[in-house]
Amino acid sequence: MKIMSNEQLVVSYRDAIKSGKEKEWIKILKDEILRRGLKPFKKR
Question: Which of 4, 18, 25, 33 has a CB 3.0–4.6 Å from the CB of 8, allowing a cystine?
Fold first, then answer.
C-alpha cells in the first residue's frame, strides 16, 4: 500500500465501501484507519 495522508485514507475507505467491491482492500484500509485511531464516519 502506498503511503497516504489521513484524509486520503478515509476518502479511499469511503469510496471502497460505496463500491462494495474489493473486500480485501476494504479490510486493509479499515485496519489502517483503526491503527491510526481515525473515525471515518460521523455519528448521526
Answer: 4
